[in-house]
Amino acid sequence: MNLSNTSGFRNILGILLFFLVLVTACKKDKTETIKEPLKVTDYFPNSGNQGTLVTIQGTGFGNRISEVTASFSGTSADVVSVTPKEIVLRSPKGGSTGDISLKISGEQVLVGKYTYQELSVQSISPANGSAGAHIQITGAGFGSTSGPAQVFINGKQALVVSASDNLLVAEVPEAAGTGPVTVKVNGKEASGQTFKFQSITDIKPLTGGKGTKVRINGSGFDEVAAGNYVDFNGKQALVQEAAADHLIVIAPDEVATGPLSLTINNQKTTGPVFTVVPVPVIQTVSPLSGPAGAVMTITGTTFSAIKDENRVSINGKDLSITSATATVITLTLPGGTGSGKVVLSVNDQVVQGPDFKDQNLGIVKLSPDNGLAGTEVTITGSGFNASPSANTVTFNGVAAVVKSAAENTLVVVAPEQLSTGQVKITSNGQTAVSPTSFNRAGVLTFAGGPGTTEISVSRFGGGIVVDKQGNVYLQENEKNRIKKISPAGVVSLFAGSPSSQSGNRNGQGTDALFNFGPSSGMVIDPQGNLFVSDYGNQSVRKITPQGVVSTFAVNLTNFTGKITMDQDGFVYVQKFYLGVWKIDKDGVKTSLAQGTSVREDAQPAVVGNDFYWVDAEGTLLSKQNLVTGTNTRYWVGGNYGYQDGIGTRAMFSGIKGILSDGNGNMYVSDNGNNALRKVNISTLEVTTVLKSARGYKDGSLAQAQVNNIADMAVDKDGNIYILDLENNAIRKIFLR
């Protein structure tokens, strides 16, 4: 082949390809305008004299006035202005009642009937609003010879507030709905533009926090998001989506509890209250591993009782929720989620939970979930080996003996070196951990017991405190003396007469004399000084760590009862049903909680600025703010009985004392129910720590027995000491 010919051919081919690409590009650049369909959505007024301006709204009108013609019952009309969505016409001279017709770029559309008459509704302001709003109706012919003008909105009669020949003011009726404004007068009728009835029917959810996505349902909303101004108690929210009947908005960062409001064209509608709640808290997830079909239970606080307001995911995969309350969510594991974090979202408030393993082996429950060494524990779950020796079980790292095994149940014995921590199972090459810790918890006798004489509390009870070294001091009211029990349980006489002699004498240790009564009590300060209420001597006595007894306060009339102290060193002594003495560091006394019904033989407590006491009925706890003096009688409890719950829904029977643990909890010796109860001071939730048949038995919280519990004390490790009166014992309750 000739090389020059070949080269020429290539040049020609390149030029052809260039033009082909250019033509193709030009075709791509050419955009075809999509014509909006011609449609009339509204027109107003529908009546008037010649020269009246008539507004037509809709779509597809274009913007060329030369392309638009109009007629009123066949008579040509002037076109005043044209936009793509609105045309303004002037009703022609010599026209007659009939249809308005439009022709736009050769396409004709029928607008509606126009009546030639004096009565005409030409404009309304505002054109939107809620029930109760006032609108101004401008027009002509409103004067009447036969009766006042009537106004209707969407066919529903409105109250006319004021009237003249060319102006009416009307009040929007309830549930008017969206529709034309119509005026009737002298047997004639005229309609104007459509009034948008603005209403909020409901919002969902009603609770949440910043970032919560809220759907607002109602009517008359602007379909352009920017046309709707939504605020939560005055703080503007982002409108994410808008339609005529609903809005989707995002609660602002500064959201606070209060009404949600919507403003459109300066017309405000107030909706329901949106309540800000804390971010949800996950307390337990059970199981933390398991197969498809296993039921997962999530416990915590601030969940939604409305099921679809909660979302749970594992490893990023959403799960279907079976049931939901404010504190418990259940679901069935689908399997195949993979291992990963459990994440809970309640109304878009997200909290991350523990890791979950997608496997056969899992622990659902420990029963009991507390105990001491030797406690028999049943573990329920899935994927266990039926051979006991093929399952390795540890309590906080210490191996336990497996007594029996089945696929879903293991029975094990808590080991001797037991401490609080998670239970772990290894079986069939997999490892699972318990959803909650197994707590080394239970009841042991610290001193005394039935038939013993080393202490004496069975008749008149007493008081009890613990110092920083773990020494327990016991006030024996019947014997008018104070015993000291070392951490090892060694009992010695600390102050008062060895022979139980009563009197009123200061001095060193056993030289001192007291005259205690059934309601005498004791408190200890941070330096280890004891303050005891001396019932018979109507005084408070002070005892140093060295056993030196002195008189701290005197002339405490109405008999002295149980005693407590605040963080500033003020001592509080209950009177006989007549309030409380408050005593400063110099022994100067004032009276508080006067006129209140105080049970003087029930141990009180001070937490922060609040003084708490047991009401004389023994079924409820009351408090007084020490700064403001405000009394709250029914703080917790109220009715006689036994029931856990929140605040006044909880029930007690014969409370003998209360004790703060310094960690936001109040313990209650519920004597009538033979129970130790716990109150969360922030939430007022009452739960039961220990409830037993009356008897005497050491063991786990589920197994132990007590009989007639009264005063309490707490040590630095959070252990509770109680006076067990009928058993003449001090019992130590381990809680962690």
Automatic annotation (TrEMBL):
Family annotation (Gene3D superfamilies): Immunoglobulins, TolB, C-terminal domain
Record-linked InterPro entries: 6-blade_b-propeller_TolB-like, Ig-like_fold, Ig_E-set, IPT_dom
One Pfam family named in its UniProt record: TIG
Residue ranges occupied by any IPT/TIG domain in the UniProt entry: 37-117, 118-198, 199-277, 279-357, 360-447
Source superkingdom: Bacteria
Name of the protein in its database record: IPT/TIG domain-containing protein
Species this protein is from: Pedobacter nutrimenti
